[in-house]
Amino acid sequence: MTAAARANDRRHVGGMIFAEAGGMSLIHVLQRTPSLAGVDLAGLTRMASFASQRSFQRGASLWQAGDQPRALTVIRNGLIKILRVGGNGRVSICGLFGAPESIGDVMLLKASPYPASAVVATETASIVTIPGELVLECLAKCPELGVSLTCSVHRKLTALHDKIEILGAGAVDARLATALLKLHAEFGDELDDGTSFIPVALSRRELAEWVSTAFETAIRTMSRWEREGVLTTSERGFILHDISALRVVSGIAPSRSDDCASAHACAPVPEPS
Question: Hey, which residues does 120 pair with through a beta bridge?
């Protein structure tokens, strides 16, 4: 989204959808939630009457792996990261989700414990929770809700595919570049000066957890890219000065040396005189 378009969208703040200043009604929050798209106004009104709203600070847990789901969780604003701890104790970020998505849908429907933890990844985040019994009751009466929840699950699978693509990119440099390009595609803004802004303030440790590398390796790689003018880091996120360099490192775009080799290979061979 360009800076001009973002300015015209009063709900778009820092690359994420937030409630209007002055407060978006809970009904409107639920209406814009994709996983509830099949519910009519009467059903949403009933959900809103039983829903709870809470705000959290960065690092707060919405739930821990192994907890039993008791509600459908809708992100009103902010970002939530899904964390899983491996057998070696290393923490890995499985996905990042923002408004107006819901999270934990599959486990609620299966009545199974959460396999991973949900933690606030932005300075603050607000969520809306709808009792699971009410969601299941609506699901029995409204087949359209089942379709919406299925589509929501599909979007979660896309996040998993993104994670697989990141891990399959190869070396750490390529994995970090791929991760930043994924963030840019999901949340990025194109600024008037030609740079791109990703309004997601992930720490070096969080980047390391996302691409499954050592904390120190993430620091070295990001520091080198900052020295080379590829990007800068701010308290609000990342500014990409040379996104084409990240595309080359990720393997999405060929390097200049590859271009030259390709051009040389394709050059016409002069006929013998």
Answer: 80
